[in-house]
Design a protein that fits this description.
Belongs to the aldehyde dehydrogenase family. GO terms for molecular function: succinate-semialdehyde dehydrogenase (NAD+) activity. With about 500 residues, the chain is α/β, with parallel strands linked by helices. It contains 14 helices and 20 strands. A seven-stranded mixed β-sheet has the order 14-15-16-13-12-17-18, with helices on both faces. The longest helix has 21 residues, at about 115-135. The structure holds nicotinamide-adenine-dinucleotide and 4-oxobutanoic acid (SSN).
C-alpha cells in the first residue's frame, strides 16, 4: 500500500477514459440498451458527481442473458481446455497493458487511491493468469475397484450456466476471481455487477471480447434492481450455479432462494477479522501489518481487521505506534498525489461507520485518533483508533467497513482465542507473535478459513480464499477455485476380463 508521488490526473484524461467504457448490456456478444430503455447513474464517491449513465437491466434482460448463456453452453464446453486457457492468458495480457485505465476507472467509481487501484489490477489480473494455467488441469482418475471386478472412471465436467454476483469494493478482482475459473472450467455465465461500481466490469467485458471469448459465454447485466432482475434467474432450472460475493445478509437470502432448485452455490460473505497481537510480537511489524489489514481499501474489505485484540502489557505502546502511522494517512480523492485514504462508498456507509464509532465512545472507548467524518464534499471518514473498547460493544460484532480500529485487550492465550472466536463470522484472522508454536496453535484454535501469521494481507490468486461459519461456503482462487465450476461424474465400467 505504498503511495508514491504521482502527477494529478487531468479532467481530459478522465473524460477520455469514461468515453471508452461500454454503457450497454452485453448479451450474446452484443452491447445493447435495456429492454425498458432505462439507465442508471454511476457516481464518484469523492465528489458525488455523476460519472456515467449505463443501461439498467430488468427481468426481461436477465432472461435474455440467461438464454444466451444456455445456448452457448454446449459448444463452449467442447472448446479444448488449452484454447480456453489461451483466451484467459490474452485477457491477462490485455488487462496488464491497460492497467492504468483499469486503475483510474476503479479510483473514479470506487474511491480507492490510485496506488491501491494499481495493486488491485495486478491482483485481479493474476486470477486470469492463474486460471489460464489451471484450465488444462481439471483431471479425473481411472482405477480398479477394490474387488477387482470393475473399473472406475471419474471425470470433471463444467457445471453449466452460472450467475455471478459481485460487490462494489474490489470492482476488478471480485469479477476476475469468478469469471476466470468459470471460463477455465468451460462454463457460460451471466455477470450481475455491483450497481455502485459497474464500470470496471463493463470495460473488463470488452477486454474479454477482445481476447476472443465467444459470444454468449460472458453476458453482463448491470442493474439498479438486483433482486427483481436476478430473482427469476435463480429460480430458473436452466441455471446450474450461483456464485455470490457480498454481505452475509444478502447471501443468506440468496441461499434460501437457491434451495428451490437445489442450485449449487458458492458464497463469499462478510467478515469480522480479529487481529491478535501477543506480548512477544515485534511491535513495529505488528503496526505495519495493522496498517495493511486496516487501511487497505479504506477498511472496506471483507478481510479488514475489525477487532484489534492486543495483550494488555503492550496495548498502550501498540496504540501509540499505530496512531503515529495512521496520522500520516491523508484523506483525499484517490486521483490526488497526496491521497492515502479515499472516500467511503456512499453516505449510508459513512453514517454506519460513524454510528458504530459514536456507540463505542458512548460505551467508554477513547478515540486516540480521529472519530468523525471529514467535512466537505465526498464521503470521507477520518482514520480512527479507539482504545479501551470493552466486550459487548456493537463495533466488535458488526463489520465496520471503514478506516476505524477498535482495540480491546486480553491477558492470556485462552482469553485471546475466546475473544477472537466470539463472532458468527470466520473469514480471516491475523496473529502476530515471534513464537512459531504459538502461531501454529492459533491456526488450530481459531475458527477461520484463512490466517495471516505475522502478515497483514494474505490475498493471493494461488491461495484458496474463503470462510467458515457465516462467512460463506466454498473457495475462490488456488487449486480449489476451479472445482467450484466443475462437477464430478463417475462412470462404472464392467470387468474388462469377464467373458
Ligand atoms: N468474502 C469475500 O470474498 C468478500 C469479498 C468482498 C466483499 N465481501 C462482503 O461484501 C459486503 C460488501 O459488499 P456489498 O455492500 O456490495 O454487499 P451486498 O450484499 O449489499 O451486495 C453484493 C451484491 O449483491 C447484489 N444484491 C443485493 N441484493 C440482492 C438481491 N436481493 N438479489 C441479488 N443480488 C443482490 C448487489 O447489487 C451487489 O452486486 C461486505 O459484507 C463484505 O464483507 C465479501
Ligand atoms: O473484500 C474482500 C476481498 C478482499 C481480497 O480478496 O483480498
Amino acid at each position: 500500500m505504498t503511495v508514491t508521488a504521482q502527477p494529478a490526473v487531468s479532467a481530459d484524461r478522465e473524460s477520455q477514459l469514461l468515453a471508452s467504457v461500454p454503457t450497454g448490456l452485453l448479451i450474446n456478444g452484443e452491447w445493447r440498451d435495456a429492454a425498458s430503455g432505462k439507465t442508471f447513474d454511476v457516481e464518484d464517491p469523492a465528489t458525488g458527481k455523476v460519472l456515467l449513465s449505463i443501461a439498467d437491466a430488468g427481468a426481461e434482460d436477465g432472461a435474455a442473458a440467461l438464454d444466451a448463456a444456455v445456448a452457448a453452453q454446449e459448444s463452449w464446453a467442447k472448446v479444448p481446455p488449452r484454447e480456453r486457457g489461451e483466451i484467459l492468458r490474452r485477457a491477462f495480457e490485455l488487462v496488464t497493458e491497460r492497467a492504468e485505465d483499469f486503475a483510474l476507472l476503479m479510483t473514479m467509481e470506487m474511491g480507492k487511491p490510485l496506488a491501491e487501484a494499481r495493486g488491485e489490477v495486478t491482483y485481479g489480473a493474476e486470477f486470469l493468469r492463474w486460471f489460464s494455467e489451471e484450465a488444462v488441469r481439471a483431471f479425473g482418475r481411472y482405477s480398479v475397484s477394490p474387488d477387482g471386478k470393475s473399473r472406475l472412471l471419474v471425470t470433471k465436467k463444467p457445471v453449466g450456466p452460472c450467475l455471478l454476483i459481485t460487490p462494489w469494493n474490489f470492482p476488478l478482482a471480485m469479477a476476475t476471481r469468478k469469471i476466470a475459473p468459470a471460463v477455465a472450467a468451460g462454463c457460460t455465465m451471466v455477470l450481475k455487477s455491483a450497481n455502485l461500481t459497474p464500470l470496471t466490469s463493463q470495460l473488463f467485458a470488452a477486454v474479454m471480447q477482445e481476447a476472443g471469448l465467444p459470444a454468449g459465454v460472458l453476458n453482463v447485466i448491470p442493474t439498479s434492481t438486483a433482486g427483481a432482475t436476478t430473482g427469476p434467474l435463480i429460480k430458473d432450472a436452466r441455471l446450474r450455479k450461483l456464485s455470490f460475493t457480498g454481505s452475509t445478509e444478502v447471501g443468506r437470502r440468496l441461499l434460501s432462494d437457491a434451495s428451490e432448485t437445489v442450485l449449487r452455490t458458492s458464497m463469499e460473505l462478510g467478515g469480522n477479522a480479529p487481529f491478535v497481537v501477543f506480548e512477544d510480537a515485534d511491535l513495529d511489524a505488528a503496526v505495519a501489518g495493522a496498517m495493511l489489514a486496516k487501511l487497505r481499501n479504506m477498511g472496506e474489505a471483507c478481510t479488514a481487521a475489525n477487532r484489534f485484540i492486543v495483550h494488555e502489557s503492550v496495548a498502550t505502546e501498540f496504540a501509540e505506534k499505530f496512531a503515529a502511522k495512521m496520522k500520516e494517512m491523508t484523506t483525499a480523492r484517490g486521483t490526488e498525489p497526496e491521497s492515502k485514504v479515499g472516500p467511503l462508498i456512499d453516505a449510508k456507509s459513512r453514517d454506519k461507520v460513524h454510528e458504530l464509532v459514536s456507540d463505542a465512545v458512548a460505551s467508554g472507548a477513547k478515540a486516540v485518533l480521529g472519530g468523525a467524518p471529514v467535512d466537505g464534499p465526498g464521503y470521507f471518514y477520518q482514520p480512527t483508533i479507539l482504545a479501551g473498547v470493552t466486550e459487548g460493544t456493537r463495533i466488535l460484532s458488526e463489520e465496520i467497513f471503514g478506516p476505524v480500529a477498535p482495540i480491546i485487550t486480553f491477558s492470556s492465550e485462552d482469553d485471546a482465542v475466546r475473544l477472537a472466536n466470539n463472532t458468527e463470522y470466520g473469514l480471516v484472522a491475523y496473529v502476530f507473535t515471534k513464537d512459531l508454536n504459538r502461531g501454529i496453535r492459533m491456526g488450530e484454535r481459531l475458527e477461520t478459513g484463512m490466517l495471516g501469521l505475522n502478515a497483514g494481507v494474505i490475498s493471493n490468486a494461488a491461495a484458496p480464499f474463503g470462510g467458515v461459519k457465516q462467512s460463506g461456503l466454498g473457495r475462490e482462487g488456488g487449486l480449489e477455485g476451479i472445482e467450484e465450476y466443475l462437477y464430478t461424474q463417475y462412470i462404472g465400467i464392467a470387468d474388462p476380463y469377464a467373458g
